[in-house]
UniProtKB/TrEMBL annotation:
Residues 68-80 have a biased composition (Polar residues). Pfam families: WD40 (PF00400). One of its GO terms (biological process) is transport along microtubule. The keyword Oxidoreductase does not apply. Gene3D superfamilies: YVTN repeat-like/Quinoprotein amine dehydrogenase (2.130.10.10). PROSITE patterns: WD_REPEATS_2. It comes from Gigaspora rosea. Residues 20-49, 62-85 are annotated as: Disordered. Keywords: Coiled coil, Cytoplasm, Repeat, WD repeat. WD repeats lie at residues 470-512. One of its GO terms (cellular component) is cytoplasmic dynein complex. The lineage of its organism: Eukaryota, Fungi, Fungi incertae sedis, Mucoromycota, Glomeromycotina. One of its GO terms (molecular function) is dynein heavy chain binding. This is WD40-repeat-containing domain protein.
């Protein structure tokens, strides 16, 4: 706005300067000219024409009169005529002055007839004189003009509303702009993709460095693993669902178990024995197995842990190394990427499947931890408060936190004063009742079973309960497992099974640790299962069927028991693999499959099928069976303690 005003002022100044210059020029010209001041008049063409005609008429009449009355000389007449012509010529140019300008008026030409040659009569002639006059210019009043606009801001009233056509035009323009922008972005994206496709060829040195890099090897392993998982998916594309199945054949097949997987690696499994197996609770397709030393391979690690995948049986997913034989292993219940192992040297190893094959943590070799072989361990507690309980053959029980393996949280030395040779109790297996973390039971090399308290309580001290011990086996206890309470009740929480090298599996009822005996008391088993023909190396309850459990022995037989059907012989007994001794057995979380570790380095997975499905009255039947077994065992005849063996004190 200020700029417009400045521009208008400059234009006005220029106009005034031009007017002043013109006025000065007119004054200069007027001062140099001589004029006769005459009254100003307005020119009228019609009036001038009439005056000229009237003057011509008078001159003609006068000429006629002079010619008829007086003759004159030619010279005098010519002088008069010439003088008249001069006057007429002078009268043709009249200077007219007005207040604002000077106008040179030239009347129309008057035709003067030729005068006759005569001497005119004398007449009155006015005396005329010439002089100089001053021209006076009166300055005109300056009129300032301005634009007749409204001197207000548009924002005070807001912009005028747009018409419908303008709105449509704006929308179309925006659409076109958006389309153009999108097209430009797409073109830019295509250009970038084209540039990416045009890659520079790597040199031979760069290719070798890339192939030998760790990231490339990990990428190849992961990618091939995914492809193998996809290719190993079993699906019968020729199955016909419209065909009626044979019910009788299905009933017969329901009484059998089926081997669905077998894991073995020529490099890592050869000349090794499987010492422990376990399923992953978070990833049910994963199986972990620990192995002892390969005596023929001097430069390989003494102990290894292999992680197998049910969908990829050709090779292990992970190979984990240890400096000592790994005797027991398991997945972490709360962190599935962690794998824990107990070794022959007494170390606790912790591996992370996301890292390399070496353990990320391990316990130190010192007197504050274990210095003897660890055959048994178990994780107890909850997600936010859990511990790893380990037991070694020197009678030491330790409690660990997985993120701090430098020293144990708790340490117990199991000592029994009534031991025949030494006070130390050599522990071979550990078992915790369902939802119990402070009291547990241990199996020993001499065959006895003891109840242990982790912490002192009113009426009892931390350590072994010296008064109560469970006697029934005549050899080392190889396995101990408490009932998992499938129906989430405590009616079977005090039942546990043990296996031993005395060829038997025994069923026990644990005495309440809240009411320990004050004097020495021997607790006998409820029943002894004696169908095996060799050492029984492991036993496990089914997590699904309340009356079902499995056992494996030295003859390579896998036995499935159902106490509600028979307590003398298993319902299924099958030879696994090539008949080699079977060291460990474990159920999956759903109770549908079992994994078995063999002494020849092979791992087998069996599908239990319909046998794993419990009936509605299984709990009632099991209560009845336990009651019958208890009644049979009420007598105090110690001859029945050892089953087929005679007990002598």
């Amino acid at each position: 706005m200020e700029f417009e005003r400045k521009r208008e002022l400059e234009e006005k100044k220029l106009r005034l300067a031009r007017l002043k210059q013109q006025r000065e020029e007119r004054n200069r010209l007027n001062s140099q000219s001589t004029f006769i001041s005459e009254p100003a008049y307005k020119t009228d063409p019609e009036r001038d024409r009439k005056i000229n005609e009237y003057a011509r008429t008078l001159l003609e009449e006068k000429d006629k009169t002079v010619r008829s009355s007086r003759p004159g000389t030619l010279s005098s007449q010519e002088d008069l005529v010439s003088s008249d012509k001069d006057k007429i010529e002078k009268s043709k140019t009249v200077t007219v002055h007005t207040n604002n300008y000077t106008n040179n008026y030239t009347p129309p030409n008057v035709s003067v007839p030729p005068s006759p040659t005569f001497f005119p009569a004398p007449r009155f002639m006015p005396e005329l004189s010439s002089g100089q006059g001053e021209s006076v210019d009166i300055a005109s009043k300056e009129i300032s003009l301005r634009e007749g606009g409204i001197q207000t801001d548009e924002t005070s009233f807001g912009p005028l509303p747009l018409s419908e056509e303008q709105i449509k035009e704006n929308i179309l323009k925006e659409i076109e702009t958006a389309k153009a922008k999108k097209a430009a972005e797409e073109a830019e994206r295509l250009r970038i993709e084209a540039e990416k496709k045009i890659k520079k060829d790597l040199s031979k040195k760069d290719k070798e460095a890339l192939i030998n890099s760790t990231k490339f090897a990990e990428f190849i392993d992961n990618s091939t693993g995914l492809i193998e998982n996809i290719l190993s998916e079993r699906f019968d594309i020729l199955i016909d669902y419209s065909v009626v199945e044979d019910v009788e054949s299905n009933e017969e097949s329901g009484n059998h178990v089926k081997c669905i997987n077998s894991f073995f690696d020529d490099r890592w499994s050869k000349n090794r024995s499987v010492t422990d197996v376990n399923f992953s609770n978070r990833n049910p397709e994963l199986v972990v197995a620990s192995y002892n030393k390969n005596s023929s391979a001097k430069y390989e690690p003494d102990g290894i842990v292999l992680v197998w995948n049910l969908r990829q049986p050709e090779r292990p997913n992970h190979v984990l190394h240890s400096q000592s034989d790994v005797l027991t292993t398991t997945f972490s219940d709360f962190r599935p990427e962690l794998i824990i192992g107990g070794t022959y040297s007494g170390h606790i190893m912790l591996w992370d499947t996301r890292a390399k094959s070496s353990p990320i943590h391990q316990t130190p070799f010192s007197a504050i931890g274990h210095t003897h072989p660890i055959y048994s361990m178990q994780i107890v507690g909850t997600q936010n408060d859990h511990n790893l309980i380990t037991a070694s053959t020197d009678g030491v029980i330790c409690s660990w936190q997985l993120d701090m393996l430098s020293h144990p949280v708790e340490r117990l030395e199991l000592i029994h004063s009534e031991h025949s040779k030494t006070d130390e109790v050599s522990v071979t297996s550990v078992g915790f009742p369902h939802n119990e973390t402070t009291a547990f039971w241990v199996g020993t090399e001499e065959g006895n079973i003891y109840q242990v308290n982790r912490r002192g309580r009113p009426g009892g001290k931390a350590g072994i309960n010296q008064c109560d011990f469970y006697k029934g086996h005549w050899g080392p206890v190889t396995g101990l497992h408490f009932h998992p309470n499938n129906n989430d009740s405590d009616e079977f929480a005090d039942l546990f099974l043990t296996s031993s090298v005395d060829w038997t599996v025994k069923l026990w009822r644990a005495k309440s640790f809240l009411m320990p005996s004050t004097s020495l008391q021997i607790i006998t088993p409820l029943h002894s299962f004696e169908a095996a023909d060799d050492y029984v190396y492991d036993v496990k309850w089914s997590p699904r069927h309340p009356a079902q459990f499995t056992s494996v022995d030295g003859t390579g037989k896998f036995s499935l028991w159902n106490m509600n059907m028979d307590v003398e012989v298993p319902i299924v007994s099958t030879e696994v693999g090539q008949g080699k001794a079977l060291n460990k057995v474990q159920w999956d979380k759903e109770g549908r499959k079992t994994v078995i570790g063999s002494s020849d380095g092979r791992v087998y997975v069996y599908d239990i099928g319909e046998l794993s499905v419990p009936k509605e009255d299984e709990n009632t039947l099991l209560q009845k069976t336990i009651s019958e077994l208890t009644d049979v065992n009420i007598n105090d005849n110690l001859d029945s303690l050892g089953g087929r063996f005679y007990y002598s004190k």
